[in-house]
Amino acid sequence: MLREQIRAFKPRLVSVLDQERASSLRAEGVEVVYGEEGLIQAATFPGVDLVVSAVVGSVGILPLLAAIEEGTDVALANKESMVTAGEIIVKKAQEKGVAILPIDSEHSAIFQALGSKLGGEGIKRIILTASGGPFYNMPAEAFKKVTPREALAHPIWRMGPKISVDSATLMNKGLEVIEAHWFFRVPSERIEVLIHPQGVVHSLVEYVDSSIIAQLSIPDMRIPIAYALSYPKRLFMDLPVLNLVELNHLTFDPPDVEKFPCLKLAYQALETGGTLPAVLNAANEVAVEAFLQGRISFDRIPHVVASTMDRHQATPLHDVEAALEADRWAKAKVLTFIQKVSQ
Q: Between 20 and 30 A from 176 (CA), which of 108, 194, 257, 336?
């Protein structure tokens, strides 16, 4: 598919995962780079108007900061960067006068409900909606037998493996809470999560005068992606119309944080601050990969994350290296723990 895209669009630069893939593509007559350095080269390519950061995991942090350093606006789908180093990223973006536009459907909804203005002024409460994932009505005692295939079968969205599992544990919503804090400058106690299985109301903003403004659309990621790409304009999208008459009803319920403790862990990390969100994110990355590989059961994911957080002494986030060091520490801890469990 990448070969077909290169032939169709003739890009000036392509970045891939590793040297082997890069070597196999160079015959296509395009400059091919690879690895983290390749991502940074793509993020800082001369003449770029907008960088879309959509890689998964903390690997997105340094390319994102490199783009900001260049003074290039960013459309952000890589939530792990904001979770791990949000304090550093927001400060650097302010220094450089760079806009960070949200791509996640929930944060795009908030962005639109705010009149496309970032900042917490006049906000009483942000309400992030969550579908609940495939297991919200499943008894917790059945989680031990959940298979990767079942966890990847999201009822509404088609997503990559890692995000699909995060949605099934509600960690995805926890990461979005932390991300919303940095995007919109709102403290954790004013960010709420509600379970909305229909996936039509993508998020809401309550203002200090008690008005609530929501963004509704069919659940299709092309809508928030297009808005970020075309901002401040809107592109015509040839998509199905949201039929309000056929909706019948919309429901909203509080999340069960006892059955889905990952959400509670994310709030804990945000309230503690410093390097703890980086540890939360890194531990979760490794735990999810271990589950997908069949090395731990689904119900062990939050236990692995909580145990790693408990062992970490959070320190202030003075620079990006502190965040990256916390990320490395947590990943090493989790790998050691999983190896012991697997033996």
A: 336
